[in-house]
Amino acid sequence: MKLVYRLQSIETKIKFNKGGIIIKKLLKYLLIFLTLFFIIFILYVNKYYKADNTAKEILNNENITIENNIITLTPRNSNNTGIIFYPGAKVEYISYLPLLNSLTENGYTCILPKMPFNLAFFNFNVADKIIKENTNIENWYIGGHSLGGAMASSYASKNLDKINGVILLGAYVYGNIPLEKTLVLYGSNDLILNKNKLKNTENEIVIKGGNHSMFGNYGHQKGDGIGEITNKEQQKITIEFINNFIKNRE
Fold first, then answer.
1. Burial of 205 by CB count in 10 Å (0-12 exposed, 13-18 middle, 19+ buried)?
2. Sheet holding 204-207, edge to edge
3. Which residue in 223, 228, 179 sits closest to 207, CA to CA?
4. How open is the CA angle 196-198-203, to the nearest 5 degrees?
5. Residue 232 exposure: Cα atoms within 13 Å on the Cβ side
6. Of 28, 171, 22, nearest to 88 (Cα)?
7. What CATH number does the domain located at 53-249 have?
8. Domain residues of the chain, as ranges?
9. How many Cα atoms within 13 Å fall on the side-chain side of residue 171?
10. Using the 8-state DSSP alphabet, how is residue 164 labeled?
11. Which end of the chain is more exposed for a tag (fewer CB within 10 A), N or C?
């Protein structure tokens, strides 16, 4: 009996040791995988589109404040309406300052948050904080460009009681939002937006000669079509439609 017991004990130890070796190997491979994933991710997010000088110069304007990576552009004569804007994926957030600064001329307070790793899905609920900290704003609109638009749309679908309308630039509605509360603008030469996901409503506007990139000031985006108008022209048209959309909802 003792011999049998010893043999069983030895067999158990062998199985335990084999299991331990297998677990160690699995942990080693998992660590290697996670390390490679982290390196690839860092390389990916560190290669992004940077704002041009036109956008950077606006940082010196007196109507701009920056706190906790959130830029607030204050109009001279506020109409108590705020626009929260989420930047596009892998685009430096200040690239949208020319567009937003022009919007303040219509009385809108524009708020532009910097997203972690320049990807809006890492902090798409930041609008909660913005709304809570700006109690002087009575009417809120949220929007964004490309992925930023999708994440702004996702936030709005879960917070329809807080948001008067959604403004999407080069993006489609993501989430359950009444179509009359959304404005979609995209360029006729946009080769990045998946147009098959558009709802084809009266609030979808095609900017003739525009493309995906020119809503911001960060140069030409890889894979996009060539614009037949300038950044300034595309953004001017965008502002006109945004202004009309908001006025029609008042």
1. middle
2. 64-67, 70-73, 108-113, 81-86, 139-145, 165-169, 182-187, 204-207
3. 228
4. 155
5. 1
6. 171
7. 3.40.50.1820
8. 1-47, 53-249
9. 28
10. S
11. N
pLDDT of residue 3: 45
Please report the pLDDT score of residue 4 as a whole number.
46
How many residues in the chain?
Answer: 250
The gap from C-alpha 249 to its chain's centroid, in whole angstroms, comes to 24
Query: What DSSP state is assigned to residue 49?
Result: B
Q: Which string of b and e fits 27-64 if b means at least 16 CB within 10 Å?
A: eeeeeeeeeeeeeeeeeeeeebbebbeebeebeeeeeb
Predicted confidence (pLDDT) per residue in 200-245, tens digit: 778 899 999 999 999 999 999 999 999 999 999 999 999 999 999 9
The token pair that represents 50 in the structure block: 């940077």
Q: Please choose, from the candidates 96, 101, 97, 86, the residue with its C-alpha nearest in 3D space to the C-alpha of residue 166.
A: 86
Q: Chain centroid to CA 201: how far?
A: 23
Residue 239, Ramachandran bin (φ over 0: left; ψ between -120 and 50: alpha; else beta): alpha
pTM given for the model? 0.85
